[in-house]
Every structure is written in structure tokens, then in C-alpha cells.
User: Which sequence fits this backbone?
RNA sequence: GUCCCCAUAGUUUAAUGGAUAGAACCGUGGUUUCCUAAACCAUUAAUCCGAGUUCGAUUCUCGGUGGGGGCACCA
């Protein structure tokens, strides 16, 4: 464990967690049960300090004592702990809050110590050290264009992967493509009946989409066509060579188009184990679940009920269709098994919109029973949900319901809008650099717009909202970082040559506010990574950029006084690395100039 | 019918049961001989309704109202 003492060792990287351990020790030493005294340390309102503990209030009430007196006794006990020293100020406030304020010597020491993105990463890995996560995200349906509704799982998934990995986890990114479902019956049916080969040659994805839509419309009208489409799927699943060849062709075209979007968003996968990968693995699922009497036959289909469960006692989990074909429940069960046995994973995270909650709850319940009965270790399962992107009509934007905006188109529009602003603000940039800036700003704004709000809510699609470039947006953060780069360029100073030993004290309120905000990075990152809610990190970065902007406007960095200059350059540089680290965790490209 | 999610300034939103509910956009007014004004500073304005639990409720419980979604072979 790091020691808190200045000068002896590295200062605590994660002050909050270490402080909480210390408080817990103090409370134990007072013979108070941890169930009675909530020792949680939380970030405090900056008006009161850096951290806060409010356990004395409820403890005092329960035990009919004076909360301020309880707080005073806890503080006395804390002062006896030798991992704390004079770098921390502890005080009682209001009805009995314990406030902790880091003294500036500690802030400075922390800033001097944690000096690069790599160093921050190395120090953050305790949270998920050595834990394995399979993260299943994006997972689009092959042969359909991605539209605006698909952006959420991609950007949330990518950000979560980056954060987990930053915090020490072994992350396996798996794109569970919908490449084996019923839609293939329709695509094959469409391909065989309505193909325009000329159109396929010029714009394959467009034509495939048209075929799918056409087949979908026809099968909705005509039960016989629907039956034929289902037969195509059954034949595909039975390995009919012609259908398999067609299926492979469709997938190849589809993947190429999807990949372009991943490249723009800087998203990568370790595996593309789509539903088709599990096609020879569903038999085992049927067999085991039947033998274990977890699954039963109902109306010709194989289903699982959960009688003990209010909702799923009567709502079936259909794991094999009555025509014998698999569906997504079949492949998802096989996927649970594969991820558990092959990847030996500790956690499975699946990122989809909240409308699929029932499905994944049923999947989880079923897997629990299945694994328990077969002595398999069940990984922690997290269904990370998000709200739906709605159209103007308040209904989900869907490909089926007609012309929704393509993701590809949205990305182009984002870059174009940003390009216009770049040309306006900074007309002298070389065209190539202007284009690069526009791309980072436009795509970054789009990603940030989605990540910066709590993922559970729905929202109505609006160009201006997603592509906004003012206020709490990516460009604001990118701009703050670009200005810092500009300072170092102007000064002709390299960050590695900062004369750290000459820096002795933080003086102005802006310097101190900035330093406090920088140290709060750790707590915010931890909270984001534990709750899997990227908007917490966004809010933090936005506040950090705001505190920096105030500092920048009030405290000139490049002054003649070398001591002042050195400490302000230190603050600038540490702000830069934390801003850049944060933006990279969100999958946003950073810029040296804007 | 039943179950799930959501409800905060005009708009978009934040707040692990804590201190005076925090921002952004819009509006209004101000800041540039000075490191990038894509900036900074100031200013108006909000917890859907009703009970309950609690020292303390935007947060938890119950009951309403309004919106969205799931519920047999789509994913």
C-alpha cells in the first residue's frame, strides 16, 4: 500500500479508496460494526473540501448520540492512524459531516508524480486486475445497413471496453453478428425472386437492403411466401450448398460495408463470432436442457418457463422453433456456454437497447439453472441497456419502417458541418490538416453527444442535437487540449523537461481548483468503470475543461517569473494528459491544433 | 390484461439517501495592446401529482397521471 506521507513514497493515486479503508480501520478500532457506520467516502462539493463522510449522522441517530460528537471521535481516531499526516485537513461541518481537504503540498506532489497517460493507466489497473470480460457489442444484422439507431451500442461498447482495459481488465471484444437468423430466409427468398444483378454490382448493400425490404413486404402479405422464406432458412441451416454459397456472399459484402463505419469510429473487435458460429453448438443446448427437464415442449416449440418467477412463469423463452430452426435464444444459450468454457471469462457484458431486457433476463435465468445443474461456473452477467433513439413520431427509428437516416450518412454530415466551422475559424490551415481536424471534431461530437447522457433514457433523433459543436460537447474538450499544446509550442518547452524540483507551491485559487479537479479524475474513472456509465466520465471531463478555461483566462502561463511559469506549465501538462486520456477512453481522437 | 423503463428551468440534461438541485443551449449585458474569443465573466428560470419511510427524498416504498417498450416461434 502506498503511504500518504509526502516525500517518503508515491502519494496515494486513488485517494478516495485509500481514505475509505482508513476510515473503516478507524471505525473498527472504535469497536463500531461496519454495518452500523457507513464509512463510504464520497467526492465532496468543492465548497466543503475534496472528500466527505456522512456515516456519523445515521449512526448517531440509531444509537441516540450527538452526531457531531461521533464525528469528533472518529476524527480523533483517524488522527492516530499513521497512514495519514499533515497533508490532509479533517473537519466537522453542519450536523456532523466529516470533510477531508487535501492540502496543496499533497496536490502538487500528486501532480508531479502521475505524469503520463501510461502512468495513469498503470496506476488504475487495481480495479479490475486480472479479471476477464467478454464484451458483446455492436452485433449488427448482416445484410442491413446500419442506421442512426445503431450508434449507441457501438460507442457505448467501445468506451466500456477501453475503460475496463484501462482499469486492468483482460477485455475480449466480440461482435456477435446477426448472421444466422430468420432475416436470412427472407434475404435468400428475395435474392432468388427479385434480384437485379446490375444493381448488385454497382451498390451491393443498397441492393441487398432492397431485396430484404421487398421480401419482407411480400412475406407479410402472403403466408405462402413467408413459408417459403422459412424453408430457405431451414435449408440454409441444414447446409444446402446453394444457400450456403449465397449466404457467404451476402456476409462478405455486408462486413465490408460495416467495417468502413468501424474505422471511422475507431472501433475494433477481437472476434466476430456471429450467430452462425454457434450453428453446430445448439444441439448440445437442446439436449442438455431437455435432459435436465429445464426445457419442455409447447405448441411444437422447445421452450423454458420459470414457474418461480412472476413474469416468466407464463411468458415462454422459446429456444427452438416449431419448424426445428434455431433462433436467437438458441444461439445465445450456446454463446453463454462457449464464452464460459472457451474464454473462461469472469464477466459477460452484452450491450443492447432496453427493449431486449426480457430476453436477456430469461437468458440469464435459464443459464443459471443450466450451469448449476451441470456444475459449471456462471460468469457475472451484465446486460448493459440503453434507451431507444426515436424518430419524430416518438417511435423507434427502424429500417423496416422506411427511410431512416443511415449511420454512414450521419458521419459524413458530421464531418461536413465541422469542416465548415474549421474553415470559418481557421482559414489558413493546410487543407489536409483542416480535413483531419474536421473529422476528429465532427465524429468526436457525434460520439460525445451519445455518451454524455445517461444511457438509460430514450431520445428523439435530431441532427442539431447530435452534431452540436457548442456547450458540453467534444469540441469544447478538444479545444482546451489544443490550447495547451499551443502553449507548449509557443514556449518551445518539452513536457519532459519541466523543472519539477523548482515548483514549491500552488498559489492562486484557479491553480488550486484545477489541481483538485485533476486529482478527482481517479474517483470519476472508478465510478464510471464500476457502473459502466460513460456519461460520468464525460461530465467530469467537461468540468475539468471548464476549470482549466477559467485558469487559462485568469492565470497567464508564459510569464517571466520562472517559478510561476514552471508550476503553471505543470498544471497545463497534467490537464492535457488527463483530458487526452479521458477522450481516448471515450474513443475520441485528440488534436494538437484546432 | 400484465410486466419493464422513463418523467428535473422554454429546450437538451446532471445529481453513488446528504449541505443553497449543477450545467449547456436560447435570451440579455460585459471581457481581446496579453499563451487560440471554438474562450471567459455576469444574469433570469426547474424536481409530473398524492401519500409513506427517514434526522434528511430528485433519489427508496405505495397509489395515481402522462409517454415509450416487452409479452409464441423477429433479433
Assistant:
Amino acid at each position: 500500500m502506498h503511504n500518504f506521507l509526502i516525500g517518503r513514497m508515491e502519494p496515494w493515486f486513488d485517494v478516495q479508496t485509500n481514505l475509505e479503508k482508513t476510515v473503516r480501520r478507524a471505525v473498527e478500532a472504535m469497536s463500531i460494526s461496519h454495518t452500523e457506520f457507513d464509512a463510504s467516502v464520497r467526492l465532496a462539493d468543492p465548497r466543503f473540501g475534496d472528500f466527505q463522510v456522512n456515516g456519523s449522522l445515521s449512526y448517531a441517530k440509531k444509537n441516540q448520540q450527538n452526531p457531531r460528537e461521533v464525528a469528533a471521535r472518529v476524527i480523533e481516531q483517524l488522527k492516530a492512524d499513521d497512514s495519514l499526516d499533515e497533508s490532509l485537513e479533517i473537519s466537522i461541518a453542519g450536523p456532523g459531516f466529516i470533510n477531508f481537504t487535501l492540502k496543496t503540498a499533497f496536490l502538487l506532489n500528486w501532480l508531479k508524480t502521475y505524469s503520463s497517460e501510461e502512468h495513469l493507466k498503470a496506476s488504475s489497473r487495481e480495479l479490475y486486475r486480472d479479471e476477464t470480460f467478454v464484451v458483446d457489442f455492436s452485433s449488427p444484422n448482416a445484410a442491413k445497413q446500419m442506421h442512426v439507431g445503431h450508434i449507441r451500442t457501438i460507442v457505448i461498447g467501445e468506451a466500456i471496453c477501453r475503460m475496463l482495459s484501462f482499469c486492468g481488465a483482460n477485455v475480449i471484444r466480440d461482435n456477435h453478428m446477426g448472421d444466422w437468423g430468420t432475416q436470412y430466409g427472407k434475404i435468400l427468398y428475395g435474392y432468388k425472386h427479385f434480384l437485379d444483378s446490375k444493381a448488385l454490382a454497382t451498390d451491393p448493400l443498397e441492393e441487398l437492403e432492397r431485396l430484404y425490404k421487398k421480401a419482407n413486404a411480400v412475406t407479410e402479405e402472403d403466408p405462402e411466401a413467408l413459408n417459403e422464406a422459412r424453408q430457405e432458412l431451414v435449408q440454409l441451416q441444414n447446409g444446402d450448398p446453394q444457400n450456403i454459397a449465397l449466404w457467404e456472399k451476402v456476409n462478405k459484402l455486408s462486413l465490408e460495408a460495416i467495417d468502413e463505419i468501424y474505422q471511422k469510429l475507431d472501433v475494433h473487435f477481437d472476434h466476430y463470432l456471429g450467430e452462425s458460429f454457434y450453428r453446430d453448438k445448439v444441439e448440445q443446448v437442446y439436449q442438455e436442457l431437455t435432459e435436465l427437464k429445464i426445457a419442455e415442449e409447447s405448441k411444437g416449440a422447445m421452450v423454458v418457463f420459470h414457474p418461480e418467477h412472476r413474469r416468466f412463469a407464463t411468458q415462454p423463452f422459446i429456444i427452438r422453433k416449431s419448424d426445428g430452426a434455431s433462433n436467437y435464444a438458441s444461439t445465445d444459450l450456446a454463446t453463454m456456454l462457449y464464452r464460459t468454457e472457451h474464454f473462461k471469462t469472469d464477466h459477460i457484458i452484452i450491450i443492447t437497447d432496453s427493449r431486449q431486457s426480457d430476453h436477456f433476463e430469461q437468458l440469464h435465468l435459464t443459464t443459471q439453472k443450466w450451469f448449476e445443474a451441470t456444475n459449471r461456473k456462471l460468469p457475472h452477467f451484465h446486460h448493459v441497456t440503453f434507451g431507444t433513439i426515436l424518430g419524430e413520431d416518438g417511435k423507434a427509428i427502424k429500417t423496416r419502417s422506411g427511410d431512416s437516416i443511415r449511420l454512414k450518412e450521419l458521419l459524413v454530415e458530421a464531418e461536413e458541418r465541422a469542416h465548415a466551422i474549421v474553415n470559418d475559424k481557421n482559414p489558413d490551415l493546410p487543407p489536409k490538416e483542416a480535413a483531419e481536424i474536421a473529422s476528429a471534431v465532427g465524429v468526436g461530437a457525434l460520439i460525445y453527444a451519445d455518451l454524455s447522457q445517461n444511457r438509460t433514457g430514450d431520445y428523439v433523433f435530431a441532427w442539431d442535437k447530435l452534431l452540436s459543436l457548442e456547450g458540453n460537447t467534444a469540441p469544447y474538450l478538444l479545444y482546451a487540449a489544443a490550447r495547451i499544446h499551443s502553449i507548449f509550442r509557443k514556449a518551445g518547452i518539452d513536457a519532459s523537461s519541466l523543472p519539477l524540483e523548482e515548483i514549491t507551491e500552488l498559489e492562486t485559487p484557479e491553480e488550486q481548483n484545477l489541481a483538485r479537479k485533476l486529482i478527482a479524475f481517479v474517483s470519476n474513472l472508478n465510478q464510471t468503470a464500476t457502473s459502466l456509465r460513460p456519461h460520468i466520465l464525460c461530465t467530469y471531463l467537461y468540468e475539468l475543461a471548464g476549470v482549466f478555461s477559467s485558469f487559462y483566462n485568469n492565470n497567464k502561463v508564459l510569464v517571466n517569473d520562472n517559478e510561476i511559469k514552471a508550476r503553471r506549465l505543470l498544471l497545463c501538462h497534467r490537464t492535457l494528459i488527463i483530458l487526452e486520456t479521458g477522450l481516448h477512453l471515450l474513443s475520441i481522437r485528440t488534436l494538437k491544433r484546432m
